[in-house]
Amino acid sequence: GLSLVKANSRISIASIAGAAISGPIATSLSLIGPEWSLRFAALVFAGGTVLAILLPSRVDSSAGEEQVGMRDVTDSRRRGISIHPLVVTALRCNAGLRVLSGFLTMFMAFLLREEPIEGWEDRRNLLLALVIGSVGLGSMVGTALGSMLKDRKPESIVVIVLVADAAAAVYAAFFFGLIPAMVLALVAGLGQQLGKLSLDALIQREVPERVRTSAFARSETLLQLSWVIGGFVGVVMPLIAQLGLFVIAGLLIAWLVFVLRGLAVGRRRAAGRRPGVA
Fold first, then answer.
1. Which of 195, 194, 99, 177 is nearest to 143 (CA)?
2. Where are the domains of the chain?
3. Residues near 104 by beta carbon (within 8 Å), at least 6 away in sequence
4. Could you tell me the CA-to-CA distances from 99 to 57, 79, 108, 158, 202 in Å, in that order?
5. Burial, 63: exposed, middle or buried (Cβ in 10 Å; 0-12, 13-18, 19+)?
6. What CA–CA distance (Å, rounded) separates 184 from 130?
7. CB-based contact 94:199 (threshold 8 Å)
8. Which of 11, 106, 169, 239 could form a disulfide with 234 if both were Cys (CB 3.0 to 4.6 A apart)?
9. Could you tell me if 125 and 250 are in contact, meaning their C-beta atoms sit under 8 angstroms apart?
């Protein structure tokens, strides 16, 4: 069958291709009037909805599968259905990546239009396109790297990309400008894609088949909620570039400490259960 990693890689490629095709169309229609871009988006959404409804029922069938709760996939210490600690750690890392993605989507979209980088006041649309393009490029690179790396240490990769995101946020906060903003967008796009593929690989490898679909669904829900939280922080944040970036960098560093602490505690607990260890 098709693995989660391959399936999500194909979905990502389709999403990037769709954005590359629909972006110029929407831009061209906006020359007639901004409402035409929205009408085009509504038409595409309606078409996608119809195609989703027409999918065969077996696609969404959960016959013979067991269900896991949200707490089961976020806390490896819970009793009952056991979710491997590596999967829990990967999900926590991805939650941090999604918070950054949601924050940048909302914060940068308003910031670069209302308070553009010095020297770009008359080219705000181009400025926004460069930053958004960096996210897309990072996502494509992440998909390519995910395909090449396959199942090579996904538990390490997912922590590394969270560290990279935190470092990029700190860099952009201290030296905010076009290049730091593009670097942050590039790293965020790459990290989100590579982190998600690593999470899928761990779910495929460590979660029993009888609960795999449910665990995957719960993880997707948590990641969407994480994106919303990041977006909310981006919306309520004053449009001061360095203030916003220092806040998100601080949140990422704190979350990274939480993830690493949980990882260390899990390893000590695992070592304590080994035979011959006091």
1. 194
2. 1-61, 69-272
3. 135, 184, 185, 188, 230, 234, 248
4. 33, 28, 14, 15, 21
5. exposed
6. 12
7. yes
8. 106
9. no
- The architecture CATH gives domain 69-272: Up-down Bundle (1.20)
Under 8 Å between Cβ of 177 and 127: no
Longest dimension (CA), the chain: 75
Confidence (pTM): 0.80
Residue 262 in tokens: 């949980």
User: In the structure encoding, which two tokens stand for residue 221, read together?
Assistant: 């829900």
Rounded-to-integer distance, Cα 108 and Cα 27, Å: 19
Length of the chain: 278
d(CA 142, CA 13): 11
Phi and psi for 139 in degrees, rounded to 5? -65, -40
Local confidence pLDDT in tens for the 278 residues of the chain? 566 667 766 777 787 788 778 878 888 888 888 888 889 999 999 998 998 888 887 666 566 566 665 555 556 555 555 677 888 899 999 999 999 999 999 999 889 888 888 888 888 888 888 998 898 899 888 888 887 776 678 889 999 999 999 999 999 999 999 999 999 999 999 999 999 988 988 888 887 777 777 778 888 889 999 999 999 999 999 999 999 999 999 999 999 999 999 888 767 765 655 554 44
Q: Which two tokens stand for residue 138?
A: 């990072």
Phi/psi-derived region of residue 118, left when phi > 0, alpha when psi is between -120 and 50, beta in every other case: beta
